[in-house]
Write a structure and sequence with these properties.
Layout: E1 4-5, E2 12-13, H1 41-55, H2 58-86, H3 103-113, E3 119-122, H4 123-133, E4 149-158, E5 161-170, E6 173-186, E7 189-199, E8 202-203, H5 209-218, H6 222-226, E9 235-239, E10 242-246
Helix pairs in contact: 3-4
Amino acid sequence: MNVIRCSSCTQDNSPSLVYCSHCGAILSKIPQGDGNVSLPTSVAVSASRAQRFEEEPLQKRSLFSHLWGTFRYLLSVALGVAVVLAMMDPKVPLPYSQPIANATVILQRYIVQSHLAQVTIAQPLINQALAQTGGMKWAPPLDFIPMPQWVESSVILTNGGLRYSVVVTLLSYPLHFSESFRLSGASRQWNLIPDSGCIGLLPLPGSLLSPMTSFMSSCSSPFLKDLQVMKAAETVRIRPDCIDLSTRP
């Protein structure tokens, strides 16, 4: 019976083996069955793989494997960094303000008064109204699909714009969403244009601002819907800590 000599350790092996019984190296000759007895399936598969490896150019296979491994590593690192940033708390605390009882009622009163004269709506009043309005609820399309649970929302006013933030929990983990808007337009034609958005500390590209705006709108309390009156206002001025508003016809 013929034997196969291992090119690595010179050990003689049976012709039905794929790997050297002494050192485990792949034998240079593809094993054959003895007489009419076919090789076991596992041996035949291993032999086929060994033949394919021998036929492929070693340099080409090594270069492709290196590039593919590098790509997978960089992709996994990028995804890991994105997930970590998205789950981080941006830690933008609001200035302390004294609790305001019936903030939503006071806010409604300011909006009505804006039909007669210019009014100034303070940022603490806005955030107190947000807190007193209560959370939003989302119904899952299917019972087993987890849905976010509303925790809180807040507004930070800046020169010519605002930053709207929402905190929700998903599977008991807090997620922080925020989007910045700038005031644009003129009398009776005001608009809040999305400027930037982020989840946690992960900034979102411009292509994702539209779905981000839709999500943030779904998180809006009745108070923010009431402020849609700004679009048709005569004058609107957003400055740090307050909004000057006049809706006189």
